[in-house]
């Protein structure tokens, strides 16, 4: 009787696995890398620019392997925004371990489709790196005639790998908002100048009062 039950259990487990109803643990304890935008709700005025970091948070595997390769493609609204700069971050250099390796970096922008692709890899990976930091910074410019409203920032794909195997990744979404009265990265100059003038005026009034 016990042998029959055991056989039935094995058969059921096999069928469930084949149907995808049970997920066998592939790498127990290995948390996925997480790609996200910072800020995840960027705002900018029409014609202005705003910088958005692509942040990767990734830990080491139970075996001690860190990340040696990263890659992603971001989708943006090419009808309302353009990409004016893509800057690679120092994710590997600022990780939890020093690296003695050249870093291969590449990036590509497709303005017709509205995608930004970035890849980074260690030539001599060693044990890789764990970190939570920007892997790249993308600077967007809102079109001069862009209507007010939000557009989504999403990851078309993402990847990461340790020296020995691929690492699972998950992604978060973000938004780019265009609106009147919203300041972009280049919109703080007038405010800084006005603040300096007000500060100088206050200092002058205080000195005059003391005299």
UniProtKB/TrEMBL annotation:
<keyword id="KW-0812">Transmembrane</keyword>
<feature type="domain" description="Cohesin">
    <location>
        <begin position="38"/>
        <end position="174"/>
    </location>
</feature>
<protein>
    <recommendedName>
        <fullName>Cohesin domain-containing protein</fullName>
    </recommendedName>
</protein>
<dbReference type="InterPro" id="IPR002102">
    <property type="entry name" value="Cohesin_dom"/>
</dbReference>
<keyword id="KW-0472">Membrane</keyword>
<dbReference type="InterPro" id="IPR008965">
    <property type="entry name" value="CBM2/CBM3_carb-bd_dom_sf"/>
</dbReference>
<dbReference type="Pfam" id="PF00963">
    <property type="entry name" value="Cohesin"/>
</dbReference>
<feature type="transmembrane region" description="Helical">
    <location>
        <begin position="182"/>
        <end position="205"/>
    </location>
</feature>
<dbReference type="GO" id="GO:0030246">
    <property type="term" value="F:carbohydrate binding"/>
</dbReference>
<keyword id="KW-1133">Transmembrane helix</keyword>
<dbReference type="GO" id="GO:0000272">
    <property type="term" value="P:polysaccharide catabolic process"/>
</dbReference>
């Amino acid at each position: 009787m016990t042998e029959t039950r055991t056989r039935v259990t094995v058969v059921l487990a096999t069928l469930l696995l084949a149907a995808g109803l049970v997920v066998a643990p592939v790498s127990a304890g290995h948390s996925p890398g997480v790609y996200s935008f910072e800020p995840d709700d960027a705002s900018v005025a029409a014609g202005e620019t705003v910088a958005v970091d692509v942040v990767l948070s990734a830990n080491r595997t139970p075996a001690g392997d860190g990340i040696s390769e990263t890659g992603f493609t971001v989708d943006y609204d090419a009808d309302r925004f353009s990409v004016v700069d893509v800057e690679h971050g120092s994710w590997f250099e600022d990780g939890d371990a020093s690296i003695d390796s050249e870093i291969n970096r590449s990036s590509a922008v497709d303005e017709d489709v509205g995608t930004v692709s970035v890849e980074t890899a260690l030539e001599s990976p060693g044990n890789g790196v764990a970190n939570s930091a920007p892997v790249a910074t993308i600077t967007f410019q809102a079109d001069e005639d862009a209507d007010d409203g939000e557009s989504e920032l999403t990851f078309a794909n993402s990847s990461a790998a340790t020296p020995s195997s691929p690492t699972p990744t998950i992604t978060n979404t973000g938004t780019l908002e265009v609106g009147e009265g919203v300041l972009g990265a280049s919109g703080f100059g007038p405010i800084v100048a006005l603040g300096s003038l007000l500060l100088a005026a206050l200092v002058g009034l205080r000195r005059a009062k003391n005299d």
